[in-house]
Design goal:
By secondary structure, the chain is an alpha+beta fold. It has a single domain, classed as Peptide Deformylase (Alpha-Beta Complex), CATH 3.90.45.10. Helices cover about 30% and strands about 30% of the residues. Strands 1, 2, 3, 4, 5 and 6 form a six-stranded antiparallel beta sheet that branches. The longest helix is centred in the first third of the chain and has 16 residues. It starts with about 20 loop residues before the first helix and ends with a helix. The chain binds zinc ion (ZN). Zinc ion (ZN) binds next to helix 5.
């Protein structure tokens, strides 16, 4: 199967409010195929999340996953600071997010629709999400750390928001610069240097 391209920033679909799906729509072959395609596109990129508008479909569907084989390549420092953990593939239809607590976390974030760049973005540390899974069953997921960041990023896509709207603009960098300048340094050190 040929995969659809990932829509890049500037396209109107990335700035639109995506539409909810009814359970009846969700059960159709068309939407089930959309979900399967989204998971393939996410893995092919590779990425840890994808929202339907990123392949040009203005519907409230997100997919996310963090594979154990990727997490196993990270250093202990990276795992601790990002609070990255592996989790199985999840599809969430009509997600509704609730931010929990006051704690926030700042970390580098990128987007498949803003290819080649990253920036520091502050997010809530813990969230809960409700919605439907791919079968139309209600889900409730309360999560903190890295998966909470991915969830906030992907649900933003459904409301036409990109991380560049929330980023610390002075930290906006190519992925290569992030790797060369900041690898092995703590977020506190990076913030001090950049004055954010
Ligand atoms: Zn994105």
């Amino acid at each position: 199967m040929e995969l659809p391209p990932i829509v890049q920033t500037g396209a109107a679909v990335l700035r639109a409010h995506a539409t909810e799906l009814t359970p009846a729509q969700l059960a159709t072959a068309e939407i089930q195929a959309l979900i399967a395609t989204m998971i393939e596109v996410m893995r092919d990129a590779p990425g840890v999340g994808l929202a339907a508008p990123q392949i040009g479909i203005p519907l409230r569907v997100i997919v996310l996953e963090e594979r154990a084989e990727v997490v196993s390549t990270l250093t202990e420092d990276e795992l601790r600071e990002k609070e990255r953990v592996a989790f199985a593939t999840r599809t969430i239809v009509n997600p509704v997010l609730r931010m929990l607590g006051e704690t926030r976390a700042m970390f580098f974030e990128g987007c498949l629709s803003v290819h080649g760049y990253a920036a520091l973005v502050e997010r809530h540390h813990e969230v809960e999400v409700t919605g439907l899974d791919e079968h139309g069953s209600p889900i409730h997921w309360q999560v903190s750390g890295w998966p909470a960041r991915i969830l906030q990023h992907e649900v933003d896509h459904l409301d036409g928001t990109l991380y560049i709207d929330r980023m610390q603009t002075r930290t906006f960098s190519t992925v290569a610069h992030v790797r060369d300048r900041f690898a092995g340094r703590t977020i506190a050190q990076i913030r001090a240097e950049l004055g954010v």
